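Fold it.
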Amino acid sequence: MEKSVTATALRVLQDALNLTPIERAELIDGLLHSFDPSPDQTHVDAWKAEAESRIDAFEVGLLTDDSAEATFERINQR
């Protein structure tokens, strides 16, 4: 970090680094959205199309599933 970062920002960073990967991802998402709280409809539509595509692939057997517990355990091991 740059030397101009405040003590408060450094304290927040240290606290954030102690969060789980999922909690850090949620924090990042919240911080990014704080810069532009209104989503671009083009991106919303693209994510919707991607989600629908993945659902379709799952339904025809091209994708498999895993339990939430196994997924979170794998993420938290990183």
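DSSP finds four helices and no strands in the chain.
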